[in-house]
Amino acid sequence: MVAVDPVPVEKKWEVDGVDREGLVYAPTLATTSPTPVVFAFHGHGGTMQHSSRTFAYHKHWPEAIVVYLQGLNTAGKLTDPEGKKPGWQHGVGAEQDRDLKFFDMVLSQLKSDYQVDESRIYSTGHSNGGGFTYLLWSQRGDVFAAVAPSASVAAQELKSLKPKPVLHVAGTSDPLVKFGWQEKTMTALRKINGCDSKGQPWGKSGDLVGTIYRSEKGPPVITLISPGDHKFPKEAPALIVKFFQENKKN
After folding, report:
1. Buried-most residue among 47, 53, 84, 90 (CB within 10 A)?
2. What CATH number does residue 28 fall under?
């Protein structure tokens, strides 16, 4: 049995004079053994507390360090144009790159506090948090072994993405981030990774059906599709952890 801290612990940082916070879960062995890291980003209007309960990656992978960071009030592209709710920067240079800087600082601190396994660092997020995961892939791609965005799209980021294992979660009835938009992103990802056009069954849980598109020369693309709406599927975290555990940097 792995000796673990029972719950994520609140941590604080100062980035460009602004107080930032997050919840960090770390197994006891993280101070003595190389340990994987999962960053999990809430959607627009979300909180670190809610994401720690909803995603609960630390329960699905107690051997990993799991970080639930808190966004700042941000104008949304599809909702909340006045920016009264927390979220993440939408592109390079937006919000003075405050969230890219936040990520850099937190990762640096983790490497100082723990024995981070640099071949097993991952990012996942839902909606705006999934979009930020695509931005991290674009701007900090060499850091990650794999990424798993949900209910989101990669638009401007596509041109700067380099091949990497990716799992994309989508609901065919999503009324906010339209499934057609997400389909275009998933098609582009298969082209980036040089994947076969025909997929094979990968995993299934409840209404979620996984399909893997393999690549002879590059990493796979996995799509995890449900008939659901914009809500994050409760079955997704276990499958995302399975995907992360299957992929590490060489």
Report:
1. 90
2. 3.40.50.1820
